[in-house]
Amino acid sequence: MERESSELIKHREIRFSRLHPDQHQAHSASLLLSDVDGIHLLRPHDSYLLHVSYDITSLYLNLLEDVLLDLGFHLDNSLMVKLMRALYYYTEEVERANLGIDDCGCADRQGFINRYQKLRHGCRDKRPEHWRNYL
Fold first, then answer.
1. Taking a C-beta distance cutoff of 8 angstroms, is the pair 84, 65 a contact?
2. What is the C-alpha to C-alpha distance for residues 117 and 110, in angstroms, rounded to an integer?
């Protein structure tokens, strides 16, 4: 039984783009995800790389990255990272289907967003809404 549960824990890297006003996206993302159920380990390796371990029955990489994108984080989109991301998305989707888990994660996403909005951090744009499209 221990082996089965260890196979349900996934160890992934989330890589962030260097072209973002927040030069410490990995640390900001780790603060956001720190109290989320299903996450076992969050460790920023440097400013642009976050190591995360999570339980596949509760979370999946696609959900985590979608939430981060929705909240304004920029992920690395180099070719190799995109290929690895697609492979992880597919294998996790198949594994969750084989386990009989078939939810969209919509409730989880709103929980992430609510928690993020309550945190104090430097990732907010202080300009009025009508000025945000201008540099």
1. no
2. 11
10-63 pLDDT per residue, tens = 999 999 998 878 788 899 999 989 888 889 999 999 989 999 999 999 899 999
The b-or-e profile of 7-43 (16+ CB within 10 A means b, else e) is eeebebbbbbeeebebebbbbbbbbbbeebebbeebe
Closest CA to 101 of 55, 39, 70: 55
Question: CB-based contacts of 115: which residues, under 8 Å, 6+ apart?
Answer: 32, 35, 36
Please choose, from the candidates 59, 54, 51, the residue with its C-alpha nearest in 3D space to the C-alpha of residue 40.
Answer: 54
User: Backbone phi, then psi, for 49, in 5-degree steps?
Assistant: -135, 125
- The pTM is what? 0.72
